[in-house]
Amino acid sequence: MKDPAPQPIRLGDHRPPNHLIEEVRLTFRLKPRATRVVSRIRFRPNPEGLPEGDLRLDGEGLRLIRCAIDGKPLSALDYLLTPEGLTVPGRRLPDRPFTWDAEVEIDPEANTALEGLYLSRGMFCTQCEAEGFRKITFYPDRPDVMAPFHVRIESDLPVLLSNGNPTSSGEGWAEWSDPWPKPAYLFALVAGDLVAHRDRFTTASGREVDLAIWVRPGDEGKCAYAMDALKRSMRWDEEVYGREYDLDVFNIVAVDDFNMGAMENKGLNIFNSKYVLASPETATDRDYDFIEGIVAHEYFHNWTGNRITCRDWFQLCLKEGLTVFRDQQFSADMRSAPVKRIEDVLQLRARQFREDAGPLAHNVRPESYIEINNFYTATVYEKGAELIRMLRQLVGPDAYRAALDLYFERHDGQACTIEDWLRVFEDVTQSDLSQFKRWYTQAGTPKVSASWGVSDGRLHLRLSQTVPPTPGQPLKEPVVIPVLVAACDPQGAEILPETLAVLDGPEMTLEWDLAALAAEAGLDVPDRVIPSLLRGFSAPVILDAALPAEDRLVLLAHDSDPFNRWEAGRSLIRETLLSMLSGGNGPDPALFEALGKVAADESLDPAFRALALALPSEDDMAQAATDAGLVPDPAAIYAVRLNFSRQMAAALQPLLARLHDTLDPGPDYSPDADQAAARSLRNTCLRLLGLVEGPDRARARYDAATNMTDEIAAFTALLELGDREIADRFFERWKDDRLVMDKWFMAQIAHADPEEAVAIAERLTQHPLFDWKNPNRFRAVMAGLTTGNPAGFHDPSGAGYRFAADWIIRMDAKNPQTAARMSTAFETRKRYDADRVALMDAELARIAATPGLSRDLAEMVGLMRA
Ligand code: B3K
Ligand code: ZN
Distance, CA 190 to ligand 1 centroid (Å)? Predict the structure, then answer.
């Protein structure tokens, strides 16, 4: 019999639970193939639920051994058991608090989906968000049911951890208590042969907290940076948000097999080992940067997510958007704020704008889903963070802080909605945010058009907006868009100081008296001005402001807003690449000259200078070509970018060589922003120089490298120059280090000649170290091709599509979340030519027709084929 098609869950159908929980007691008897979970749960009827409502417990893949209510065993006639859970009819329940007892058996070793309780190389660990707890025991697995948990773990393994504070332990057992009511998705348990890197933290009010990072023996020397990042995060949250930590211990565990980056379980964060372990020899500056940001992100969830959680999964952005925004603020404070902003916008455009422009576009607060795991997206996270940034911009930093204080005060211990969130802003600012709320309920990236001019001594700026149709949302209302504007004269002197324009209707016009502005700025009255629009990327929109190239060169040289300075250069490069793609003019020497000036400017952060020399990615160019009405040819995009880089390298060769030779921060490696910035610019020069000089410089750098940042930079530069031996040398040195080997797998594909990329990827999947069930290794190869080498993935033969589809199908049977995520490789298919579209359609159809497809992958493929 065919399974019935899974039904969407809808926001509008949300009902409060019939029962709430006063307390949970769990005992785990851990065995790889047969773990027993004994639960005792104190329920009480919820006054907001249905009178005499059923008791609904989620449960999947559980072998029920026994269950009882108030000590009275239930027989199979007393409840309804389905593959999704267990329901006790209301008429069989007492109309007062009662105790549910149950024992179930589960098989962690068979759990390859890595959701629920599973084994990773001999270590028991859990991942419960979003709905993994139901694979551990019968429970109302929904975030609006919060309870204190008491956990006993029985196992021969030496280290036994759960949420909250340790209460007692003995030979073969340990007990933990978490006093803070939490939803089941924040439950965690770890048991393994682990060692701790320890430290302590004293909170602002004087509470002593024991900190530990738990890793496999041998990895304890790679935890110092994550620990340092943790302590800085704890201090920062006290100083900037007034939030203190609230338990006696804070534990982090590094796990090798993990579906995503990390998880904020209360008091027991579980991390993909990639985002904990670092040494100068094995981790790049970028890895350190990620570790800092992710440690902070998970720590910040303690307040934004754990103390205040989401009422239901439609509200996911309530915790994720806010926590991403907080981690972005933290990283901006720890490092260079302008560079962080540029990097965040690069990510937003690469992942979220791409999502918003395709078949997977959805609201920051979605209204329906089939599989919630598919909605941990760039839209919920990154666009969600942009909405908070805009709110802060609109109300100002003081009102923002006051609103957050009110949020924590009013909602501590609650499961909340976006309405609750916006209400604290409305109450603090006495304003109506119903129009702003459209940002949460409309998908699609708004387009803002700008025009300006000087007439009758007045400077006019006209702004207008449209929000494009997205699947299921043909018509949109205008949103509230904060547009930070300024303007300079033709020499680059700022004549209009930075001003906030709030575009909340279809259009608006602003006007200034130019003579007054000039007098104020101490400048002559110019006959024209150059606007600097959307400074700091003040809203997640696509700006259309046909600024002449010569004006953008002025902004690139002079704009006092670093984001727009970078943006001016980036848009000039993009336009040149587009022109080259359509057979038009190549680079204007004036552009190289201007980029060279930025690169040489020692008053600027080297990381900023490196970003200024970077090109829009191949995927960005495919989107840019589509927006310009062209059909993108991935091979042509690859060739044009390479050609541009070669010309730039030739034009700037002496400068690049000088920078390369003088920027070496020396052998005493530190991952701090200053050193990382110098390496970033130096290695940008290295790669460009290779294009004109050949491989000798990169070979010398490879041999001399004393840290992974430099080693991988030389390695990838050599791969791009066609060096065939370098991969073997790298392998011999690093074959025993799993995280470095992920880089080896990925780099060989991402930096391959596109014509060879699929063959290399295929060959690597035959490699003995290709452990495809490990999500990091799987992603290294798959993303190495699908995002790392777009021209290879889009090979006209269709071999790249076939390769990806084969592996997605294979992975789906083991780990649906990872398979579903990888399927987004096909989300842009409509951009391409009819032959490619047909090839991609055929692969999507083949995936869709696979028997036993997971709900995760079925939903993704269904959306992409619609
Ligand atoms: N909250 C987790 C993500 C859970 C993903 C479930 N599929 C990590 C984070 O955002 O911090
Ligand atoms: Zn998060």
Answer: 17
